[in-house]
Design a protein that fits this description.
Elements (H helix, E strand, L loop, with lengths): L2 H7 L5 H20 L2 H8 L8 H24 L2 H5 L1 H31 L2 E2 L13 E2 L3 H6 L3 H17 L2 H12 L6 H13 L2 H12 L5 H10 E5 L5 E5 L10 H29 L3 H9 L5 H11 L1 H16 L3 H6 L11 H9 L7 H33 L1
Antiparallel strand pairs: 1-2, 3-4
Helix pairs in contact: 2-4, 6-19, 8-13, 8-16, 9-13, 10-13, 11-13, 13-16, 18-19
Length: about 400
């Protein structure tokens, strides 16, 4: 065999390996779809179908991985891949993540949209048959006449507007911390600490702080409006000229109290973004600005902020998405109360589908669909802006 023939042969398709990989992928795929809870219950000795759900999931995942491995072997032994390895290798590495993204994100989105046209309680009958009923646009007709939906939508807008305060506050703290003084790292860690705390923990902390009987707010309130007295039996009692407000117990305060709790970690996140951006600010431009007499607000506006545009863009995107998908704080602090006044679309969807035993999966899916399209519009605009910025830099 000549050198040229040997060089060309290494690009030939290896048919045995391709056939083996395809066969393994097909078998794994068929087995994965054939395995269900009933099969696992009967063959692994489970007494209840509910106990077999988790093992069924892991068995399916095992065969899914086998299918991906077989497809990988088949594809990498094709002549087309061997000749275009540099261009195709990144997509090959991404394929596993894309496959899981397709299964656990894209497909459920379309399932949720399809469920929004049905009336379903989320249950199957004893034979495993779906019990839903196709109702067309009936859920959307009820939804657009539901005052709780408009309350949730209004609260989402309120979250969106007030959450934007995290950006200028985070910028201000970042500018304050962007100094080279002794102990500045300790202060940075303290300001960043709220971001690493779980949202549930943050909600609990603020719930205790808002408590009108023993919370931090009650203590501060007592400094101004309360005084301690000794009654006739010698016990110390507290008398207040104005009772402390119940932040989470009154509809007019509750939403603002939850948003304030959500702002605490969001400000920390924006601060980190701006601190990273400030580390990349060109010192030459700062020095040129000083030579031109710029200082203070002028320096910030004309020299610093233009270089922080990427950080600002990311901060705005993350803040908007966080405001639209807010759920943890409401679930932890008020569960949508009092009287549904703190509901947002994400929590109202959950509450209608599985919360409080409602079981209106179709109606909850219609709320999820509305929220999805709201976020889709914003994300599409975000991607368009990214494309335009990259196009302008070329």
């Amino acid at each position: 065999m000549t050198v040229s023939e040997h060089a060309n042969s290494r690009y030939d398709t290896s048919m045995p390996k391709v056939a083996m990989g395809c066969a393994a992928a097909v078998v794994a795929l068929l087995v994965m779809f054939s395995i269900d809870v009933t099969w696992v219950t009967e063959n692994f000795g489970y007494e209840k179908r509910t106990d077999a759900r988790v093992p069924t999931f892991f068995i399916r995942m095992l065969f899914l991985i086998g299918m991906l491995a077989g497809a990988f072997v088949a594809f990498t032994n094709l002549s087309y891949y061997k000749r275009n390895r540099v261009a195709l290798a990144p997509w090959l590495f991404l394929s596993v993540g894309l496959a899981f993204f397709l299964i656990y994100v894209i497909i459920p989105i379309f399932q949720s949209i399809s469920y929004s046209f049905t009336k379903w309680n989320g249950l199957y009958d004893v034979t495993g048959t779906w019990t839903g009923e196709w109702v067309g646009f009936e859920n959307y007709r009820i939804l657009f006449g539901d005052p709780n939906f408009y309350t949730s939508l209004y609260n989402n807008v309120l979250w969106l507007l007030l959450f934007m305060l995290a950006i200028p506050i985070g910028l201000g703290i970042a500018l304050f911390l962007n100094q080279t003084v002794t102990g500045i790292r300790i202060y940075k860690s303290m300001f960043f600490f709220p971001f690493v705390i779980s949202q549930v923990v943050v909600g609990l902390i603020f719930s205790w702080a808002y408590n009108p009987e023993f919370g931090l707010l009650s203590e501060i309130w007592g400094w101004f409006f309360c005084e301690q007295k000794i009654n006739i039996v010698g016990n110390i009692t507290t008398s207040c000229s104005v009772d402390p407000p119940s932040i989470l117990g009154e509809a007019k305060y509750a939403t603002y109290g939850i948003i304030a709790a959500g702002l605490w970690p969001q400000i920390a996140y924006c601060m980190i973004l701006y601190l990273t951006g400030l580390n990349n600010v060109s010192p030459d431009q700062v020095e040129a600005g000083r030579l031109d007499g710029a200082k203070g607000w002028k320096m910030l506006r004309h020299v610093i902020l233009p270089q922080l545009r990427p950080a600002t863009f990311i901060a705005v995107v993350v803040t908007v998405i966080g405001a639209l998908r807010s759920f943890d704080m409401i679930a932890t602090m008020t569960q949508g109360g009092p009287f549904g006044s703190t509901n947002v679309l994400a929590y109202y969807m959950f509450d209608q589908a599985v919360g409080e035993g409602v079981g209106r999966y179709g109606y909850g899916s219609s709320i999820a669909t509305i929220l999805f399209f709201i976020m889709l519009i914003y994300i599409s605009y975000f991607l368009w802006r990214m494309y335009q910025d990259e196009k302008a830099e070329r």
